[in-house]
Amino acid sequence: MPSVVLHSTPPTAAExxxxxxxxxxxELADDALAAMAAARRVIDELAARTEPVYGVxxxxxxxxxxxxxxxxxTRLQRNIVRxxxxxxxxxxxxxxxxxxxxxxxxxxxxxxxxxxxxxxRTMAALLNAGITxxxxxxxxxxxxxxxxxxxxxxxxxLGEGExxxxxGRLRAAAELLAEHGIAPVELREKExxxxxxxxxxxxxxxxxxxxxxxxxxTSADITAALTLEALLGTDRVLEPELHAVRPHPGQAAxxxxxxxxxxxxxxxxxxxxxxxxxxxxxxxRCAPQVAGAVRDTLAHARAVADRELAAAVDNPVVVNGxxxxxxxxxxxxxxxxxxxxxxxxxxxxxxxxRRTDRLLDRHRSHGLPPFLAEDPGVDSGLMIAQYTQAALxxxxxxxxxxxSVDSIPSSAMQEDHVSMGWSAARKLRTAVTLLTRVLGxxxxxxxxxxxxxxxxxxxxxxxxxxxxxxxxxxxxxxxGGDRFLAPELATAEGLVADGTLVRAAESxxxxxx
Length: 513
Prior knowledge:
The protein is mainly alpha-helical. Helix content is 56%, strand content 5%.
């Protein structure tokens, strides 16, 4: 994979993901090194003066009232890292930590923090060596930055604490640095503070969630189309002119996706032959409206993420040759959209579960066997798969409770309003995983229903057949008697998670939105 070159201007979201998930190497451009050196000169000049400057020659937070003598400032910067590395709980995922490290390096490279180029080079060296600091689940309030998570990353730069090596084993950070020829850094004025004071964890998780939800909302369009087809529903509600009169762009995109998946179907609309229906149920008929609202929420979240990606979040910052205090570290903009996305994910999952239940209920499935069982009564079919799906949806609803409406004062009331954005990001990651499982179960049920429904005369759409071929090739079993179901549901989840479902449909439809 090509290297990601960090300039003094921000990277793209794709570059962040390349480093976080793809282990792309990081290089520092000459303009970034020059910007850092220029900002450092400002810090050095201020450090030589007698008047106190926050973060340069004072304590931190509620302790900023003390002026720190020059001979104590190295210790001050080291101490802020050690004392703030106070996280607890399970380890945070490797991709999140890599995003956290890279995004902090991005801000350092902007030339607004006053961190020396040699510190930035060491940060890049850690990423390139595949050394991942141990970061814990709990420790950030989403204000004054993701303090504890970033402190654990900075601790590794000092050669202290534990880190994961490229082989996945936990070892002492000092051993890993020595093994890769990386010298621990000795922090100078402002540098310890600058390494901790950012929204990088929240932003990294938001960028990854946006990428994942982009795939999942398209997956939901496909599974909704398969279910509509298996229920002999009508695709006329997907016609472009109906969505043009309510011009939400996401709605139009989802309706178009479903219409393209269903093109050429021999099943849609045949309910009129045997059991006339004026309209399909909401979970089928309104699928584009709900998935479309998710798309529009996702577009807003991406806009916020792009603005944050363009930001240099630190306090104080170096601007126009001076150092200025600010409140740009507050995570409210990110916390809100992280919560919005968790709400959207829960609703998308809720509608998918209702469609699955409809496929399994003989009173509403228009001729399909109860629970899609081979011998109902002897076989239970997919009865308990829907229970699992319902339990997942219930969990998603709890995860939709906003974190960003909470605030607990800290730092002796100096930091008296916080965003809880890190907590919003952590629960969104869980929500993304659960939504993937919900859609996997709908895929499994809709695929079985289509195979039970299809005849030589009434064939599913070409795109639907391509999906069925792909999922069977991916290890998902077809209709038949009862068998150990959990492994097949896990396989279905994997086919959604790795993009197999979307790629299969697109092999016929072309690129979907």
